[in-house]
Write a structure and sequence with these properties.
Four copies of one chain form a homotetramer. By secondary structure, the first copy, chain A, is mostly helical. Chain A has eight helices and no strands. The radius of gyration of chain A is 18 Å and the shape is elongated. The interface between A and D is large, with 40 and 36 residues.
């Protein structure tokens, strides 16, 4: 399979999902109180929007770095990639659910954040699975030495572990679980995935 | 016509359709009972989401394998491709209909699954039509020997036949019809379309 | 400007618009009468869906043929292309309006079909404008001889003239206006735009 | 990072955002008065649609000119680009808000136009930030002489300054603020960004 087509399809899914996120931000319209109050009451939507946007954005950056270093894009990778996208596509709906229930607190807020964390966890594990598969099947263009493999696994695995923690924490404190979810894209902003997206790769056009 | 542009356009349609599927998963929001119950009652949406997602995903993989092996992308192929996309674009709406009516049972569930199966059947026959046309017009880059042609037709035709069966079965048992529809992407996960997406093709970047 | 980027952006807009068309096909859901009746009452939606889908699809095919033969994609062409897309993006909303009002007849049906025809007319004239500009600015890769120019103008102009007729006819008979609109993509299916999308262009990969 | 992938992803986001704009144009449907009156009452939607469409369209043209002249697309640029897209994605929702509240006047209209202007301001400053970063990090393919830099900053900065003015003016007169916002794409239609999208760049395919 052509790498370009895998990337175009994935990028289009990432782009549509990231743009649909903002549909939750539309206010109800006239007859629902002063607009300023509606917008102020909408703060959970903005928080959820920003977290989801940056997470999908960073997954897109990492996806690029990973696929760029794969020598052969075959049917198995295309299928693993579809599993990743199953979770990416869930994010706009789960973001809307968090936006609706976060401020209400109680059991519903716990369930909403749990669903949200679960979608991200599925995304994290799918991504780690793709990386593991490329490592084991020896399809990386620049094979990693043994030690570097564990370092890379650790770096990619951090997200999955944090999302797993967020799922558990959601039962106790939805805001703390949200903070953990928000921390993941922040982590990847500062953590360059050097082992995969090598400086050489970055410099290529 | 440039193959790239046919692929970019088709991939974008596949990507938008696959992402719109999840819009059906959004819950109604506060005032409609506990969130946990709303989510639990939503199970037909999740089942329909997974079936539609994997089917569109596999059609995308197969579409790639087929177009990659076509030597010349001309106006006729572009038109046949539009007919395929007419049915792909119907899938999010038909998925929503199944999600709304499946759990209710009775005549409405039968009609909903029938519409759903009919959209997939249209997609299957369009795809088989594109394959047949590329075979007959001698536009494959690697022409198939006579015997391989029948094997390939069989492999591509399986989906259309199964969808036709699902349409018929929908009158009797919607759940069985759904199971047949769900079986098609599972079949294509394990059935490599070797005659079209040849190993050589897979290995190419 | 890179031709590729103009094409990717335009193709994405065409693809999103064509996929949003089907949102009008979703039924209201349980509590609105038997599903079979809802679907049967939905026939104007299906008619409008098919007309809009095939029209956007054919515009995409023609857009490709035209852009492919332009030697230089500059800022002016990018702006003219945006004007074309202003009308393309209107089509899903106008398709929904026709679907809602066609069966009701009377003044509302006339206004709905008028809006629908006007969007297509804008699209047709924008497209003719782009073609005229490429002709006059001498930017075609294969310059057309004088006689071929008039032939090409005629071929591209047919759509605009038909849409203008549909706008006029909409005041008298919405169904006849719709039939005229539906005739345009059928015309372009059989009319190869040879002067622009030359056989040589078609044969290129 | 590959420039192509940055462009494909950004173009897809621009394309989806620009197409979602038109969702606001759909009328409420039968039972809400004569269609002609509904359409006439919809004029703020059309005004907001045209302003948002042309602004996103021109940002797309400028984005292309800027990215085309960057020698190396690295992780930092990808992140800055995501910040730009955060604001682009907000535009359909803010356009809908303006459409709903503009004609009502009063405090709500002021807030609606303020939010709208703020999204554009964020977009303008993000874009200026990307330009500043490419200048300082010396990543332009054709480095600018000192004097040309200030000229270029001025040209890119005009939009941000105008949007800042629109934010301030929105408190006093929403229509004047809207007029300022509408003036920006008109300015960029006539102002060729020669220093960045050089004639050489324009001529390249």
């Amino acid at each position: 399979m052509s790498r370009t087509r895998l990337e175009v399809f994935s990028d289009a899914v990432f782009a549509v999902a990231i743009t649909l996120l903002a549909l939750n931000l539309a206010v109800a319209g006239p007859g629902h109180g002063p607009l300023l109050h509606q917008v102020a009451d909408h703060w959970p939507s903005f928080v959820a929007y920003l977290i989801s946007f940056m997470t999908i954005g960073l997954i897109w950056v990492n996806h690029h770095a990973l696929v760029q270093n794969v020598a052969v894009v075959d049917r198995t990778l295309a299928l693993l990639n579809l599993v990743l996208l199953v979770f990416v596509v869930l994010i706009p709906a789960d973001t809307a659910t968090v936006a609706k229930y976060l401020a209400l607190g109680g059991q519903d807020a716990r369930v909403a954040v749990l669903l949200y964390a679960a979608a991200f966890m599925g995304m994290g594990f799918s991504f780690a699975g793709i990386f593991e598969w490329t490592l084991r099947s020896g399809r990386l263009r620049q094979p990693l030495p043994k030690r570097a493999r564990w370092k890379a696994r650790l770096r990619f695995g951090v997200a999955s572990v944090l999302y797993l923690a967020a799922v558990a924490v959601a039962f106790v404190s939805p805001p703390v679980a949200l903070a953990i979810i928000a921390a993941v894209p922040v982590y990847y902003i500062f953590e360059r995935l050097e082992v995969v997206g090598s400086p050489a790769g970055d410099r290529q056009q």
